[in-house]
Amino acid sequence: MRAQRLDTRTLTFEVTDVPVPTPGPGEVLVKVAFCGICHSDLSLLDGTFPAMGPPVITQGHEASGTIAELGAGVEGWAVGDRVVPAAGRPCGRCAFCRRSDFSNCTQLALMAFAYDGAWAEYTLAQAGGLTRIPDNVSMEQAAILADAVSTPYGAVVHTGDVRVGESVGVWGAGGVGTHVVQLARLVGATPIVAVDLDETVRQRALDLG
């Protein structure tokens, strides 16, 4: 398959041919339909973010696709299912994981940083971290759910615990920031004030509504 491979030691990358990975127990092979470009991908490319895993890695963690193959022991999923892979894998060993509180894992491995991501034709994913894509959601839109939507959702609903009638301030009105604004509105926050120093970003947010 074709895949983008970044050498984190030299910060050089190329699109090249690599073997299609084989899903292990509890994993699925996903045929990638779309994969977004996150700012953290760019930060790994320019060395701002340190490498967390193998020195040569495939980037991309905002993916959507269809299941192409099931690993041993996978139940509840079928080849052809439309899915979004989780952008990280819980360690399964920390105190939170041992009580199945995987969202608070203290040693979360990040997709495209600690293990190969989805700037490729196929990617591996844990079956337990898959989200089924509804029929009325396009693959293109679904791709950003794993990060650019779920991260601000967690910030608004869990970290910020925003309630009806509370005011919200958002610093930065880019991809994540505009989702924070929309999610804060959905939970009933008012007023919501978004700030950004970049005129182009501000205008894009205004155009979005």
Give an account of the 3D structure.
This protein is 22% helix and 25% strand. The chain has a five-stranded antiparallel beta sheet with strand order 9-3-5-6-10. The model has no long low-confidence stretch (mean pLDDT 94). Helix 4 packs across helix 5. It has six helices and twelve strands. With 209 residues, the protein is of the alpha+beta class. It is globular.
Which features does this protein show?
209 residues; alpha+beta; three-stranded antiparallel sheet; 6 helices
Q: Brief description of this entry?
A:
This protein is of the alpha+beta class and 209 residues long.
Mean pLDDT across all amino acids: 94
How many E-type strands? Answer: 12
| Strand content bin | 25-35%
Helix proportion of residues, in percent?
10-25%
Shape: globular
* N-end to C-end Cα span: 40 Å
Radius of gyration: 18 Å
Low-confidence stretches: none
Individual helix count: 6
Task: Give a short account of the largest sheet.
Answer: 5 strands, antiparallel
The SSE string, one letter per element, is: EEEHEEEEHEEEHHEHEH
Structural class: alpha+beta
Query: Strands across the major sheet, in which order?
Result: 9-3-5-6-10
Please write out the topology.
Layout: E1 2-7, E2 12-17, E3 27-35, H1 39-45, E4 56-57, E5 63-70, E6 82-84, E7 88-89, H2 95-98, E8 109-110, E9 122-126, E10 131-132, H3 139-142, H4 150-159, E11 168-171, H5 175-186, E12 192-195, H6 199-208
Parallel strand pairs: 11-12
Antiparallel strand pairs: 1-2, 1-4, 3-5, 3-9, 5-6, 6-10, 7-8
Helix pairs in contact: 4-5
